[in-house]
Each structure stands twice: as structure tokens, then as C-alpha cells.
Amino acid sequence: MYFYFQTTFEIFPDELILEICRYLHCSHVLYSFSDLNFRLNRTITSYRQHVWFRRASYKQLLHIYEYILPRIGSSVISLTIHPLHQASFPSSFKQQLSNIFPNLKTLTLTSWTSENFLSIMIEGLQKMNYLEKLVIQELSCPPTIQHIDFLEKIFNIKNNFLKNIIFDYDCDSFNLNNHLKNNLISDHILYLTIQLDTLLDLSILIHFIPNIYHLDVSIKNSSLKPVIFKNTLPFLKEFSIWIIHWYSHFDDLIPLFSIVPSIEQFSLTISTRDFDLVNGKKLHSILPSQLKQFNYTVCYYPYENFDQSNIDIIQKSWQSIPVICSISENDRRIFLHTLPYSSTRLTIRSGLAKNMPTKNIYQMYSKINQIQVYTMTNLSDTFPILGQCRRVRELTLLTANESTISNSQATSSGRSKVKDYKN
Predict the structure, then answer these.
(1) Do residue 181 and residue 156 come from a single domain?
(2) Which of 283, 309, 344 is the last residue of a domain?
(3) DSSP-assigned beta bridge partners for residue 301
(4) Cβ-contact 208, 181 below 8 angstroms
(5) Do 306 and 382 share a structural domain?
(6) Which residues pair with 23 in a beta bridge?
(7) Domain boundary at 344, 370, 394, which?
(8) Whether residues 184 and 265 fall in one domain
(9) Which of 128, 163, 334, 374 lies 20 to 30 Å (CA to CA) from residue 108?
């Protein structure tokens, strides 16, 4: 039963009330306006369907957990649980997640450890019959649980709808090597984003996901060095791979295509000192014939004998494919990518970011919402690229302890993050 009395605030049209809500966090909207009357409930429908908490006090959280979520739980489609809320999340709530949120489709968990995840969340996830998407952000994987065992628990969450699992790029990388291969086959997973330690881990992973359609992999501790792949992914159409911390070589790229016989969209982000990997004609010659879209981003670190003639050769080799280049003033590094930039995530060196073109190219970066800038020396270096990325919600800054990258690995000693967890 609602008792209706009109206030000055309620005279505002729905559009103006929602504009005011944009300056508030979801927890504040729910705490302030939920169940005041039918009209406000209808106006804030999206906040009652997509629930995320940010900057709420302990008192507010308890009120939301005890009085609001049980009432709106059946209408909640997506839910985000952050680390600051784990302690205040009632234990009874954790055990009844599937009952309170029977129609939940997307669950996002941030800054959990693999141990806490398995002890607190895994049982409830097994009962979420309509869960379609599981997003795990900033996962820490202590040695108490083997990586393969943790993934087995996640991949075995089987219901009729869960097909999309995302481990974002701030999660610890999984090391599957030296673990015995078990009988785990997750044929229901069609979309997977994951961080792996080496390319060898990828050769192990593909055994578990035979029906994968979209695969986004970040390799954190190796280049595209040759690996023997014993399995293929016959249904994989969209494949993205990120290897930026180590230098890759042209010949190492060819075996990668052996596992994707039906690939239609391929995205590759690498660092290299191999001139062939910035030669557009050379790259185009090895691409699969059925490929419909090739997205390429490369940071090229030339050797000392590199001059303007080499830059001219690079630019001419890409005449048939639109690209954009940025050249570092200090060490002649080249940042090159195909157009338009197709990923939602951009990783770029500080010295290259400050030399990005700044005129009328923002539409090329319209999809980007995450930027990682490494070897930071000056915050102002990020301004040119930030000026082009109008929808950025997450900025990660990595500071270098050396002015150059070693011949094998990029090093970082400091990390700063500005992040908006709004979903």
C-alpha cells in the first residue's frame, strides 16, 4: 500500500528526476527513493533492475540488504558485489542468492580471492537457473587453490543459460601448466574472456572449451613463441589475443592460426622488435582466407639503424588497410593500429599516448571504456589520448622503474587506478 502525497520534487518530470539520479550512485537512489510511491518506483525502474553499490554507508547497506533487496529481488537483472560490501553482506543473504534474485542474468564480483569465491559464492551460483553472464574483476589467486581446480569449479556451473564468463584484465593470470589434465569439458561456454600466464596455458585451455564461439585471451608472461597445439576450436569465430609485455616475432604468429580453422574476426595486440610485424603486406599474406575482419594493434621498438626510410616503408605497406600511427620523440617507437579501433580496451605506452593525433578522430575510439597507460613519466602524457576517448570509465596508470623496456620484458614498479564500477 502506498500513501501518496506530492512534494516539490515530484512535480519534476521523469526525465529531470532521472537526470538528477545520474549524479547519484545506485545505492543512494534505492535508499532515498525506493518504495516511496508507485510513480517513483516506476521512474527508477532501471536502478531496481541493475543494482550496484558505490560509496554507501554501512547503515545504508544494511537497510538496502534487509528491506529493499528482498522486495525488488525478483526484478533484479544484474547485480554487482564489491569487496567493501562482502563483510556487511548478511550470511543468510549469501545462502539465499538464488531465491532472492530468481531472475538474475548478470552477476559481477569484484576483488574477491579464489578461496573466498569458492567458499562463499560457488554454491549459490549453481542454483541461479537464469544466470547468463558471470563477470569476475580483479580476482586474486593465492597458492592455496590450484588454478585448474578453481577453473573447474567455475566451468562446472551448469545451467540452461550460463554461456558467458569474463575474467577481466586486472585478474591474476591463470597458470595451467604442470597440472594434470582432467576430464573437464565445458561444452556450454560460448564466450570467454580470460588472463593466462603463457601461451602454453592456452594450448591446455582449449581442451576444455570445444564449443567456444568468442575467445578473448591476455597472455601476461610470454611472447608468441611457438607452441604445439593438439586441439582446435572448430566453432571459434571471434578471437582476440593480447601479448604486450614481451616481444613477439612474425614466425610465431603462423601456428596460432592452426587452432582456428573457422575464424572470421581476429584481433591481435602485441609488442615487437620484428620489422615484419609492422609490414602490412607481409601480415596480410598469412591471414586465413575466410577472415572477414582483422584488428591489429602493435607497439614496435626499432633497432638503432632505423631511419625515416623505414617509416616510409611501413606506411606504404598499409596503403590497402586504413591505419593510424604515433611515433615517440625519444626512442622512435611506433604505435600502429588498424581503423576503426574495435576494442573497448586500449593499452598504450605513455610516450606514444602524448603524440597521438588530436584532431577529429574521436569517433575512431568511440568504443573504448578502459585505458591502460604504462611506463608513465608524466600525467600530462595521457591527456591527448583521453581527449579522444569520450566514454572512458576506467584509467590504469603504470609507472616504470626504468626509462626503457628490456629486450624481453616490460617492467613496472607503480600502479594507480581510477575506476568507475557503474554497470
Answers:
(1) yes
(2) 344
(3) none
(4) no
(5) no
(6) none
(7) 344
(8) yes
(9) 374
CA angle 164, 167, 170 (to 5 degrees): 155
Residues 6+ apart with CB under 8 A from 312: none
Residues 277 and 374 placed together within one structural domain of the fold: no
Which H helix or E strand runs over 94? helix 91-95
As to burial, measured by CB atoms within 10 angstroms (0-12 exposed, 13-18 middle, 19+ buried), residue 394 is: buried
- Regarding whether 286 and 149 lie in a shared domain, the answer is yes
Instruction: Determine which helix (DSSP H) or strand (DSSP E) holds 10, and give its type and residue range.
Output: helix 8-11
Residue 350: name the closest of 318, 380, 305, 321 by CA. Answer: 380
| Residue type present at position 57 | S
Contacts of 241 (CB under 8 A, 6+ apart): 216, 217, 218, 219, 256, 267, 268, 269
Same domain, 129 and 212: yes
* Structural domain range at position 409: 345-423
97 falls within a domain: yes
Q: Alpha carbon of 399 to those of 291, 382, 405, 414: distances in Å?
A: 37, 12, 12, 5
Give the Cα separation of 242 and 113 in Å (integer).
24
Residue 38 located in a structural domain: no
Do 323 and 353 reside in the same domain of the chain?
no
- pLDDT per residue, tens digit, the chain (423 aa), is 555 555 677 788 889 989 988 888 898 999 988 888 888 899 999 999 999 876 777 788 888 888 898 899 999 999 988 765 555 565 656 667 788 889 999 999 888 888 888 887 888 888 888 999 999 998 999 888 888 889 988 988 878 799 999 999 889 999 987 665 556 788 899 999 999 998 889 988 998 899 999 999 999 887 767 777 888 999 999 999 999 888 999 988 888 888 999 999 999 999 999 999 999 999 999 999 999 999 999 999 988 777 778 888 998 999 888 888 888 877 788 899 998 888 888 888 887 777 776 665 657 788 888 888 888 777 887 887 777 787 888 888 887 654 333 333 333 334 445 444 333
CA distance 39 to 261: 54
- Give the pTM: 0.85
Judge residue 165's burial from the number of C-beta atoms within 10 Å of its C-beta, 0-12 exposed, 13-18 middle, 19 or more buried: buried
Shared-domain flag, residues 290 and 328: yes
Q: How far apart are CA 142 and CA 172, in angstroms?
A: 9
Q: Is residue 125 part of a domain?
A: yes
